[in-house]
Amino acid sequence: MSVRIAPDGTYVFGQPQIAPDGTYVGEGRIQIAPDGTYVAGQPRIAPDGTYVAGRPTIAPDGTFVGGKPLICPDGTYIGDGSE
To answer: What is the number of structural domains in the chain?
Structure first.
């Protein structure tokens, strides 16, 4: 799998899926986090209070992602969802 662009212009890992709130998440089982956001996998809280799918990891830009950080074409980071 790889970084892909969703129809709304956001980047996701793997095949984009639309969540019930209209946002896009990557490949995996869509789940709702305690804060009301959607993630593709088991929601886990990161040290900054955001929820990610996978092991919370800090990316080079200081954001938290789920799993291994992957750089997107726009310079932002997403995670691969790994544990």
So the answer is: 1
Residue with tokens 């089982």, as numbered in its chain: 29
Whole-model pTM?
Answer: 0.87
Q: Is the distance from CB of 16 to CB of 23 less than 8 angstroms?
A: no
CB-side neighbour CA atoms (13 Å) of 69: 14
- CB contact at 8 A, 12 and 78: yes
Instruction: Show the CA angle centred on residue 58, arms to residues 52 and 59, nearest 5°.
Output: 100
pLDDT tens digits for range 15-53 = 999 999 999 999 999 999 999 999 999 999 999 999 999
Per residue, the 3-state secondary structure of the chain, as one string, reads CCEEECCCCCEEECCCEECCCCCEECCCCEEECCCCCEEECCEEECCCCCEEECCEEECCCCCEEECCEEECCCCCEEECCCC
Range of the domain at 11: 3-79
